[in-house]
Every structure is written in C-alpha cells, then in structure tokens.
C-alpha cells in the first residue's frame, strides 16, 4: 500500500466538488449502512428529484444545504485497498477563497474541477494559482458535467487546450486532465462507457497510484516549539524535525544567535534514542548552554538565513484593504513577531498573471510585498525550506488571520535592514522619534515642568524617556540608541553640567530632531506638549512608508 495522500478539491461554485468526493465514498463502499440510509432519505428532498445527492455527504452545515454551496472546509479520512487519504472539500465561491487557501495549505495534490459547459473561469485560475502558491506540485483537472456536454470529445479537447495554456502560465508540473461526470459516476471510480475516446485512468485510480515525490530539503533543521526544563539538570529543546536527520554527537548551530554546540542526547516521547529523522517530534539536549527560545531554529547544513526583512507573495484575506505601513503579528515557523508590510511591490492579476503597480490590496487579491520585522528572524525561500518560507499575517486588534503567503526572497540583514527596523519601531509606536533638550539654566524651565510635560505626553499616547545625563556619559550615543528605538527623548540639561555645549553639538550629529524653544512656550505645559506632539507626529515623508496604526 502506498503512503497517505492529502488532497483537496477546488474550483468554481457548483462545479461538483462535493459531489465528486461523495461519489468516491459511495462507490468505494466506504459508508456505514446508516450513512447510506440517511443519504438516501436526505436526497429525496434534495435538488436531484429523488436521485442520490452525493454532495450531502460533505455539505454538513445547514447554510450549505439551504444555499446548495460549500462554505466551510470539510475534511474526510478514508482508505481503499491501495491507499489512505485525507481530503479537504473546499468552497468554490469567491467570498470563501480564504477557506479554500486554508485547505490548500495542507495538501500534496489538488483536484480542480471545471464545468464542461463553461470551461476555465477566473475562479479556476485563482484556485490554481493559490494551489501553486501553497507549494502543491500535483494537479488533476477534472472536466466535470460531461453528461451535460453530451460526452463530447470535441468540447473536452477545447477545454484541454485552455488547461494546457494555464499549465504553461503557472509553470505547473505533474498535471492530469480527466473528463468526468460526478453525478453519473463517469471516470470517477471506474472507466466510463460513455467516453471510450478517453484512454486515461479514472480519478480514483490516479489518486491511488500517483507517486508524490517530495522534494528533499537541504540539511537538518528543527524550529523550536518549546524549551523543556523539568529540573535544574536538564534543558531540552522540543519540536518536529522538518528536514534531514540528527544523531548524538552531531554539531548544530542555534539560530539566530549563531552559537554552536553538540547534541548530548535525543529523546522521542519518553525514550532516549541515538538518532532521529524528518517528521519525528523530539527533545534535543545540547552539551552546553546556548541562547535558544521558542521561535529559534536548530540547524546543521540547511543554509537558512537570519534577517529582518523578506519579500513574500501574499494572498490577502481580510475584508479591510491592505495598505503599505500596516503592522501585524507575523507567524513564521514557530516564531510570532511584530512586522510591517513596508511596501506593496506589485499586484498579480489572477486571470492573466500580469504584474501591476498597486498601493493597496483587496480581499482575495495576490501581491508581492516587502515585510520588515521588529526583530531578527530565521527564514528562507519557500522553494528551499517550506516551513521557514511560509507565513501568515495576524491582525493585532482582532487576532484574525489577514493574509497567508510564501517567502520569495530573504533580504540581506545589513545597514539598510537596520534602518527599516527603526522605521518599524516608529510605526508601531505611532510617532516620529526625536530628542528635545530642556536647559535648566533657563529660569522658565524647571525639572518639575519637564516631568509634567512627560506625564501629559505619555497620557496622550506618546512613548517618551526623560534623560538627565551626568558629565561622564556619552550623551550623543545614548540618545541615538533611544531614537532608534522610536522613543521621544526629553533631555534635561542640568545647570552644573560642565560639557553642555559639547553635548548640544553631539545632538546635532546623533539625534533625530532638536527643538529651540520660543519665548512664549517656556514654562507653559500645554503649549509645550502641543508643540512636541505636532513635531513628533508620524509622517510618511519621514520614513517612506504610510502611517496606518
């Protein structure tokens, strides 16, 4: 028996996805007697005039049955004599594209249905593109409702040419094209007597025999899910091995810290073993202390990169539009980190594949975007390491998944990346970083006055730090680091500070902004607060990204 096959059915509304899977289950005698009886009874009041409505096996929600469409993803597990399967029956309606994308994320193969009377539609193209985006490499295009097309070979060949064009456009490999009638059973589980001109295999035979050749990823890596510390003598790192194998004594690198250590012990469940391989959940103990927490990666020869910025192809799934500058939680591997969509590079037309300029993205649209993280993360191109190349964006307010996508390019983590992280910190805080000096030698300015200003700014949502340096402190460097963190520095210069003029000179070199006070503002808390708030408003022209907080 071949191994487990995970596949999805997708396509436009009413193309017969649920019916196809229901027919496979029914014909393969995979239903219990009471399920068969219930199906026959439900079908009597169904849409087929008393004939068996196979879609009812999967459309379980009342809303699905009332509308005659699939809404939620329905997962079914079944086994034939030749193979075990998990199938996800996904919605066809454009409104539920995000549900379909969720189903595609787990699958090895996609069965895409087309209506023989309509051919390749926009939704067909969208689903094929999403499946390719999610890394699916095996496709069965089922040209359904051939009974309504009078089992015409000519019509099938016309649609076959459309599919071949789509195949070339998306660069699809391992493609099967099958004429079927899901309601009548033609080429579903057995060859059709109505289409003797088709010499290929029926759907079920292809599913049973297809050899899913998983691409072997380079090296060993394990994204850390949990640090296990049952006592003071044991510290282990838990997770699933995503690629390669590991044995006791092997040297590994902890990312992003880049610290090296050797494997001291390996534990699978409650047993200690000498080695482990891809797919196994393990606990790994190292021979020395390293800086590792959830979201880090243990690696050996895998070639992953540490970065603060990536380019990714995103499928936008939120009702609200995506615009440059919006910040989210980004789930990448086992890491959850704040990030910002710093730039929408271009959108991708789902019908033609054309790249178009875009400054926003609507629901179900696809675009290439640049994402910057608030911290360094371990990532790689999706084509090289799947787990470290797939991500989702989570809305920071609603906690809903706003987008899913794959990494197409990992940016060099150099000076430019550092600048973008500075921008990100400012965006998240919703302000422009600045340094505001308050010279206490001015009789109108007191320490109490500055403290009151800071209090009002903080209550108004600004992130501030009151800093009163001493003579021996490197003031310029300190305020630079605080500004890089996106903080407004209220710099108190005491009367007896010896190198006051030198400090003011260093501020001109290091700080984001210096305010020279007008006479009318000195000593007046409200006017000073309003001035600082105005001067530190986040602005697109400062950082080159929009402000959407």
Write the layout of secondary structure elements.
Elements: E1 5-11, H1 17-27, H2 33-43, H3 62-67, E2 74-79, E3 84-89, H4 97-104, E4 109-115, H5 122-133, E5 138-144, H6 153-170, E6 175-179, H7 203-209, E7 220-223, E8 226-231, E9 234-240, E10 245-247, E11 251-255, E12 259-268, E13 271-273, E14 275-277, E15 281-286, E16 297-300, E17 305-316, E18 322-323, E19 327-332, E20 335-348, E21 355-356, E22 360-361, E23 366-379, E24 390-394, E25 401-410, H8 415-429, E26 434-439, H9 447-459, E27 464-467, H10 475-484, E28 488-493, H11 500-510, H12 525-535, H13 540-543
Parallel strand pairs: 1-3, 1-4, 4-5, 5-6, 26-28, 27-28
Antiparallel strand pairs: 2-3, 7-16, 8-9, 9-15, 10-14, 11-12, 11-16, 12-13, 12-15, 17-23, 17-25, 18-22, 19-20, 19-24, 20-21, 20-23, 24-25
Helix pairs in contact: 9-12, 10-11
């Amino acid at each position: 028996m071949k191994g487990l096959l995970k596949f999805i059915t997708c396509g436009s509304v009413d193309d017969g996805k649920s019916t196809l899977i229901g027919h496979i289950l029914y014909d393969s005698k995979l239903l219990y007697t009471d399920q068969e009886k219930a199906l026959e009874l439900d079908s009597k009041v169904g849409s087929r005039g008393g004939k068996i409505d196979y879609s009812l096996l999967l459309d379980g929600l009342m809303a699905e049955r009332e509308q005659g469409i699939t809404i939620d993803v329905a997962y079914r597990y079944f086994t034939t004599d030749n193979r075990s399967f998990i199938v996800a029956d996904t919605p066809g309606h454009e409104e539920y594209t995000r549900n379909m994308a969720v189903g595609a994320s787990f699958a090895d193969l996609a069965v895409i249905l087309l209506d023989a009377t309509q051919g390749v539609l926009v939704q067909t193209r969208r689903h094929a593109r999403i499946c390719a985006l999610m890394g699916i490499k095996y496709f069965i295009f089922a040209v359904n409702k051939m009974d309504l097309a009078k089992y015409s070979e000519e019509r099938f060949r016309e649609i076959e040419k459309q599919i071949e064009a789509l195949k070339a456009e998306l660069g699809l490999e391992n493609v099967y094209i099958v004429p079927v009638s899901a309601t009548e059973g033609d080429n579903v589980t057995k060859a059709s007597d109505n289409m003797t001109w088709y010499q290929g295999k029926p759907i079920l035979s292809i599913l049973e025999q297809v050899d899913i050749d998983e691409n072997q990823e380079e090296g060993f890596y394990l994204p850390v899910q949990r640090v296990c510390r049952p006592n003071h003598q044991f510290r282990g790192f838990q997770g699933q091995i995503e690629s390669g194998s590991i044995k006791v004594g092997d040297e590994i690198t902890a990312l992003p810290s880049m610290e090296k250590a050797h494997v001291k012990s390996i534990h699978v469940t409650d047993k200690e073993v000498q080695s482990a391989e891809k797919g196994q959940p393990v606990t790994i103990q190292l021979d020395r202390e390293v800086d590792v927490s959830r979201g880090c990666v243990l690696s050996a020869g895998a070639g992953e990169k540490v970065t603060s910025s990536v380019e990714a192809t995103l499928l936008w799934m939120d009702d609200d539009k995506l615009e440059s500058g919006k910040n989210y939680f980004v789930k990448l591997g086992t890491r959850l980190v704040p990030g910002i969509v710093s730039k929408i590079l271009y959108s991708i037309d789902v019908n033609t594949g054309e790249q178009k300029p875009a400054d926003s993205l609507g629901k179900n649209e696809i675009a290439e975007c640049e994402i910057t993280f608030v911290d360094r993360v371990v990532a790689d191109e999706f084509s090289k390491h799947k787990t470290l190349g797939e991500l989702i964006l989570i809305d920071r307010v609603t906690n809903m998944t706003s987008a899913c996508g794959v990494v197409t390019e990992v940016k060099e983590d150099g000076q430019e990346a550092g600048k973008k992280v500075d921008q990100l910190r400012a965006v998240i805080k919703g302000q422009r970083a600045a340094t505001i000096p308050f010279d206490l030698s001015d009789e109108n300015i007191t320490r109490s006055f500055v403290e009151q200003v800071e209090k009002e700014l903080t209550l108004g949502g600004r992130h501030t730090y009151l800093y009163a340096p001493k003579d021996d402190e490197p003031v310029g460097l300190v305020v630079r680091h605080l500004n890089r963190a996106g903080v407004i520095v209220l710099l108190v210069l005491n009367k007896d500070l010896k190198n006051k003029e030198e400090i003011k000179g260093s501020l001109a070199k290091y700080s984001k902004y210096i305010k020279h006070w007008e006479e009318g503002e000195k000593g007046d808390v409200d006017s000073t607060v309003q001035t600082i708030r105005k001067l530190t408003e986040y602005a697109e022209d400062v950082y080159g990204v929009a402000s959407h907080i």
